[in-house]
Each structure stands twice: as structure tokens, then as C-alpha cells.
């Protein structure tokens, strides 16, 4: 991640020894270790929470898509039987044309429109 080698760690240790001195260096190292541990734990907790929320969003999206698909299936099933007659009852034949002379229907006057 940071690409820190052994020589860099040795240099940081020597600088810390000079700055803090041999009496306070173990306490400073312990405090630094505690803070680094707390930061790691808080970052991992945040990461886990974000992943959990992303998973919850994905699950919600999948459930919503499944509900939409189910409603579409129900709609197709309700439309399909209404569009086709049942197979067990025969379809009624079309009415026969009436016999006799055919006369055009009487003309109806158009309603009066005002300008």
C-alpha cells in the first residue's frame, strides 16, 4: 500500500528515538499502536456498513423487479382469457343476413350550427 521498506522503518525508528528519548519511546509506540488499531477498526466498520447498505439496496432492487414481473404475469393472465373464448364452449355463428329488399336508411338532416 505505502511501499515502505525496512530501511525506511529503521530511519523512522531512529528519528523517534532521538525525538522522544529512550524513556518515553515505549509509551509513544504503544499510544501510536492503539490509535492505529482504532483507526483500522473504524475504517473496517465503515466499510462493512457501506457493503451492507449496498447489499440491502441490491436486494430491494431485486424484490422490486420481481414484484413488477409478478404484476405483469398477472396482467397477462387476466388479459389472455378475456381475449380468447373458452375452448369447451363453441363460438356463436355470426347472424345471418336478413332476406328482402335492401333500402338505404333515411337521410337525417345535419344539426344547425351557429357561426
From TrEMBL:
Q: Name one GO cellular component term.
A: TAT protein transport complex
**Has the keyword Membrane been applied to this entry?**
yes
**Start-end of Pro residues biased regions:** 83-109
Q: Which NCBIfam families match?
A: tatB
Its biological purpose = Part of the twin-arginine translocation (Tat) system that transports large folded proteins containing a characteristic twin-arginine motif in their signal peptide across membranes. Together with TatC, TatB is part of a receptor directly interacting with Tat signal peptides. TatB may form an oligomeric binding site that transiently accommodates folded Tat precursor proteins before their translocation.
In the record, the note on similarity to other proteins reads: Belongs to the TatB family.
Q: Report the protein name in the record.
A: Sec-independent protein translocase protein TatB
Q: What is the lineage of its organism?
A: Bacteria, Pseudomonadati, Pseudomonadota, Gammaproteobacteria, Pseudomonadales
Amino acid at each position: 500500500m505505502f511501499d515502505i521498506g525496512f530501511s525506511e522503518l529503521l530511519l523512522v525508528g531512529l528519528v523517534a528515538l532521538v525525538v522522544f528519548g529512550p524513556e518515553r519511546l515505549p509509551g509513544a509506540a504503544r499510544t501510536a499502536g492503539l490509535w492505529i488499531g482504532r483507526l483500522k477498526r473504524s475504517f473496517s466498520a465503515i466499510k462493512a456498513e457501506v457493503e451492507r447498505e449496498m447489499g440491502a439496496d441490491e436486494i430491494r432492487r431485486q424484490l422490486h423487479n420481481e414484484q413488477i414481473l409478478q404484476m405483469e404475469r398477472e396482467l397477462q393472465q387476466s388479459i389472455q382469457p378475456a381475449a380468447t373464448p373458452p375452448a369447451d364452449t363453441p363460438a356463436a355463428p355470426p347472424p345471418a343476413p336478413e332476406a328482402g329488399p335492401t333500402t338505404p336508411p333515411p337521410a337525417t338532416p345535419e344539426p344547425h350550427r351557429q357561426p
